[in-house]
Design brief:
210 residues, mainly alpha, three-stranded antiparallel sheet
Length: 210
């Protein structure tokens, strides 16, 4: 076989570029169609979820003289404040609670987002302007109460916390105002060093802690 024939067994650079260009063109044509098909499929799944909810509502009202469920569970001790929990016996697939187009995003800075702690009370609802308690163990028993619910001297000027990245660590009481308690919480608020807070500004019982 001559060198010329051996050469013709492969592709030339121009031929290879033409093939790549054709593939790119086909992808440009097909991808929008595939994307539309995927969106249509998600829409169909969402409608299917709603249809399953309609069956749940129908069965519930059929069992309760045509009445809808209460907005809040009559048994407050269960903590079930949503009609979704009331309808649990009427559906088996939890996926119907969510539209397939709902965005699932990871939590940013998860290591600074508290999940659970060893003191205080439920429904902390902290804000960056929540003042520190004037004495250890003083916090509001009403709903809310802010960071005061968390600022309890359990571990020599600190508390133990579980964070959104599932790590645990000891956090100084003064550092509670620097955590990302919720999406709009300002971590450089008035009760932080960045916000101008000095040790002399803290209540007396907190000044001895770092």
């Amino acid at each position: 076989m001559s060198d010329r024939n051996r050469y013709r067994l492969g592709f030339t650079l121009i031929e290879l570029l033409v093939v790549i260009a054709i593939i790119a063109l086909l992808m440009a044509i097909l991808l929008p169609s595939l994307s539309r098909a995927r969106e249509q499929a998600r829409t169909v799944v969402c409608l299917s979820h709603l249809k399953q909810w309609s069956l749940c509502f129908s069965m519930y009202t059929g069992d309760h003289d045509g009445k809808f469920m209460p907005g809040i569970d009559e048994d407050w001790d269960t903590g079930r404040y949503s009609w979704i929990y009331t309808l649990i016996p009427y559906y088996e697939e939890p996926a119907i609670r969510l539209c397939p187009k709902a965005r699932r995003t990871g939590q940013k800075n998860a290591a600074a987002v508290p999940v659970l702690m060893d003191c205080g009370f439920m429904l902390v609802r902290p804000e960056p302007y929540d003042p520190p308690p004037e004495q250890d163990g003083q916090f509001l028993w009403s709903f809310g109460g802010g960071v005061q619910r968390a600022c309890t001297d359990r571990h020599n000027g600190a508390v133990n916390l579980l964070f959104m990245d599932w790590s645990t660590r000891k956090v100084g009481l003064k550092d509670l105002w620097t955590l990302k308690w919720h999406r709009t919480f300002e971590t450089a608020g008035p009760y932080t060093a960045v916000g101008g807070m000095t040790n002399a500004d803290w209540p007396t019982w907190l000044r001895r802690h770092n």
